[in-house]
Amino acid sequence: MIKNGKQTLRIVVSVSLAAGILYSSGPAADTEASKPTSDINWDNELQEIDGFGGSFAFHKAGSIYRLDEPQRTQILDMLFSEENGIGLDIVRNQVGDGGTWGDSEYDGPADTIMPEPGEFVWDDPDWETKKDEFDKYQIWLMKEAEKRGVTEFISSVWSAPYWMKENESVSGEGDSNRLREDKYQEFADYLAEYVLGYKEHFDIDISYISPTNEPDFTGGYSSSLWTPEELNTFVREYLGPTFEERDVPAEIVLGEGMEFTEEYAAPALDDVATRDYVDIVAAHAYQGLQEDGTVVPENEFERSKELDKKIWQTEYMNQGDQKQEFEDNTIDDAMGYANLIGNMFDHPGVGAYFWWWPAANSGADGSNLIRLMNDGSDQSVSPTETGLFRVFKRYYSFGNYSRFVEPGDVMIESDKHPVDDVMITTFKDPNSGDFSIMAVNNSSESQQITFDLNDFPEDTSAVVPYRTSASENLNKLDDIQIKDGSFSMKLKSSSVTSFIPKTFELPDLPDMKDVFSTYIAAENDGMTPGLQVRDNAEGEQVVTNIRNGSHIKYSNVNFGDGSANGQPDKRGILHMNAEVSSIFGGTIEVRLDDPYSGKVVGTMDVPERLDPEKWLTVSTKIDTNSTDGAQGFHNVYLVFKNDNSKNTRMFDVHSFAFSDEEPDND
Fold first, then answer.
1. DSSP string, 602-641
2. What's the whole-model pTM score?
3. Which residue in 547, 511, 553 sits closest to 530, CA to CA?
């Protein structure tokens, strides 16, 4: 597989665990019989992978377009670059219908190619002067994605143009919000012209066309109702034959209902006259998942699998006010998606997984992997981008898959659960020998796992782990040597780890920290000489020998707009907590950019306790004012002080963390 001018081969393993330890290679202390082991079989191939993607519908590409440099390039790289980001492979667009979304010109759907019957925009005598403004956000983003190696684009229809609809509107409540039967052929021609026109006028190859987005929804924005039987009729008698007759190269994607089932493609799959026109069966995941939202029902997509149809999950995100709380943007949320993605690849065997808006200016944090900050608080107003942004932990766990699993890779068989709470998912490039192993560990304890690589390429001598945990963001770790066809690693608690061959290693992502991560004191970016690291009674590393005036540094911490989650009632509310064991006590100053003269944005009081093994949490509210407070990127210094005239040990520190409220102190 060639991407970004480079041949790649990856195996991804996702592991979720809940407390931290490192890794080891070679024999472990455990006996061979007691080692949890995942056998990974190179020759046992499962489904082919089409990639990972996301949508920029409703002009959300404009949120990126309007940014100044270097932020604009930075966000594009974070989304599409394999070197500097999570390497998305597919862009999902909206086939424009001329409707509106909210009250802002920024938020309307993409322009329609046929605003009135019989009038294609490129037939306008002034087309060449208008062309650069047509659907400019989506087209610009597709071109930028292409520069970063993306070649696949899917365009989904929210609604046909108003004049094709029973209610003469692209939106609306009720059963009349649907395509008129006498317009089926015209709509098929419209979609054919869309694909052919984007190639002719913009040199963009639309790879896939979906004639409906959420056919089970009707409401106040672009939408259109369909029954499964109507979709079968439309594809069988109109869309399929039209694409065939006009030699339209785009493949047909069918379904995209709100529930993760094949319901809206089922009649087409059962119809021998239709099924060959259907290339991909797609669904969204807003309904239909089991238990905690990470498990897919066992009997779903059975007909699609029988017919060897590709299965895609084309839209999902956090939803609802409860999903905007601080804790719903931390490692707990990231772990949920790591599990869901791994389970979807395992069953029903998806070939592609999409996020809704990978990056956007919006009022609901749950809809983004990266949220671009704005000066408004609601999606229905006309917000202006501030240039600030926040990155949620789910961005990194999503990237544990999307950065290393490439289009054309094949999922291969492995022992999915070598031990309780650990899930293994594995992929290979059948041409290059590259592979990726994802290990997701949901345990609160670290666990030693051995990976037996059966029939792997003989020249595979080492793997490189990339880990996301409470304190790590897709961090690149030291190589692990492969001995006698296997390697071992002690998986960190609540972590997702991706392993790829040393031959195909990627650089560490650019350093960027966030308020949703935990900061382990011993894993700092610099500390005063004299500070030491010891193990506490639980075997965790803590910083000790803290004296008056000593400090710890964390570089490049992104505070975004200073709020804990971006909701209107949380703006300016951000706390920082420290887990400490106190002896003589003192204070912890939170300073920006300089340990001596930097702005103090918070101070934590540590009471005297005289017990180095009794741990408590202390807290301070952070000053997030927009003039000189904690907004945007800063180096953060934790400066330790007390008024004790003796230069004695004040307290020990285990970790620091942010939150949207002050915890109860012990």
1. EEEEE-----TT-EEEEEEE----TTTSS-SEEEEEEEEE
2. 0.93
3. 547
Beta bridge partners of 360: 371
Do residue 21 and residue 157 come from a single domain? no
The 3-state secondary structure of 142-191 reads HHHHHHCCCCEEEEEECCCCHHHECCCCCCCCCCCCEECHHHHHHHHHHH
Residue 574 belongs to domain spanning: 513-659
Among candidates 3, 6, 1, 12, which has minimal Cα distance to 353? 12
Domain termination residue (choose one: 354, 372, 402): 402
Strand stretches in 431-550, DSSP E: 435-441, 447-454, 462-468, 475-476, 480-481, 486-491, 495-501, 513-514, 518-520, 532-535, 541-544
Is position 665 within any domain?
no
Q: What single-letter DSSP state applies at residue 129?
A: H
Q: Over the stretch 637-659, which tens digit does the pLDDT of each residue have?
A: 999 999 865 668 899 999 999 99
Bridge partners of 551, per DSSP, are: 639
DSSP 270-320: H-TTTGGGEEEEEEEEEE--BTTTTB--TTTTHHHHHTT-EEEEEE----S
CATH number of 607's domain = 2.60.120.260
pLDDT tens for 142-172 read 999 999 999 999 999 999 999 999 999 999 9
